[in-house]
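Handout, tutorial session.
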Amino acid sequence: MGDEGLFGPRTVTWHLHADPAMWVAGVCSLFLQALHPRAVAAVVQNSRFRDDPLGRLQRTGNFVATTTYGTTAEAEAVASRVRAVHRALRGTDRETGEEFRLDEPEPLMWVHCAEVASFASVVRRAGFPLTIAQLDQYFDEQRRSAALVGLDPATVPGSTRAMAAYFARVRPQLRRTEDSDLIYRFLHLPLSSRWLLPVNLGYLPLGHLAYSVLPGWARRLHGRPAYPPLVVEAGLRAFRAAGLAVPDQLRFRYPGDHVQRALDRLGEAAAPAPTAPTGR
């Protein structure tokens, strides 16, 4: 076996992150992240996502895929670049006018927890089977990802109970803002050119499905209607089923070839499965 990287085929992360429902889960996590005033202000003030929407989403996906399926050196290299960017940038709190660093623990912790909780929840709802023990294992594994962006793993929720306690603690700080409204609109219609209107309209149902799988309390903070529950469940499962119907030889190469390169390195026995391992 070659270098398994930070995770490897015996982890829940390895299999969950290759699931087709991660497409929906990733967008859902961005809706959730937008509810933290400082975290979303940092994005709006420092990112060119409106000018380069596909590039911004691709870079986010590349970070998750590289840290999951890349070699240890590749994961550490991409993380080093992210930490350098966060270290150099500043944001301004729109309510207090206070300047803050993007590498402060509070917004980093929020982005991490919103991301991994969304990944686990959405993929599980779409049909990826996860026991509570496997969820606990996933959150514990994801402390490695948190360390990559500069967080102390000991302070990061590593179980379902700890994650629930974190969200209960942080919820009073979350709210709808002008910045969160901007992100809501962007994630529904990300391409601004009128020539790309058909692409936007084709994407719109997926974008709203990703919004609709937010926790109820998060949707109430956004203050926007969601698809009915039956539509959400049917849409999630249909999306996952369609993705799993794509042959692995093709699915593991797109949108990036991170999974296929991991299989080239480790062998076909390491292929992600539509279920998670039962033990560490």
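The second record follows below. Compare its token runs with those of the first.
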Amino acid sequence: MTEEEINVNMMQPPQIYVERTLAMVKPDAIHKAENIEEIILRSGFTILSKRRIHLTPEQASDFYAEHYGKMFFPSLVAYMSSGPIIVMVLAKENAIPYWRELCGPTNSMKARETHPDSLLCHVQYQALYGVDDQRNAVHGSDGIVNAEREIRFMFNDSIVEPIPVKQAAKDYLERAVNITLLAGLTELCKKKPEDPVKWLADWLIANNPNKPTINDNYKVEES
């Protein structure tokens, strides 16, 4: 590398990948949404989009589809559709792990013991507002694939960068495609339609878990 090339490289600012994640304030903590937003901003996040919505049971079921069949699924759906929530798209370098760390463990009792400074553990910060594994005040995407899916679900007009290749692509197929495709193929075998390709295509369109189906009567706030 020549001296000129070195000087040019030194003049260029470092490129930082700004990650995005979905943050959610759950029904039991909606009255503390402003406090939570203040903490988010003080922690260096940028709030790209924000809205207040009230999920129907069907929408809550679609959002948490990966937990379908688990013992807690019905109560989770009932809780998440019990009142309005605030959803936000947060941006920051390594936003996903930073937001998860700020939220603290999913289990509120554990959060009190291991993460006393996590979000909502005193008047500012999840365990003070959290009650158990489900009523734990806030939600954060657990990875790039889920962040993209959840942002698209809550903000259907959001532009999300293409899914990366390699392991991230495998994760995407595993978590966002294979589950739905397997369910569709199972139904296909049960129905045995004359035109299986067309039937499967129609089924996938009707049962697309990423299809934006949120209808809310609340004012959409964006910042």
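Points raised in discussion: Confidence is low (pLDDT under 50) at residues 120-132.
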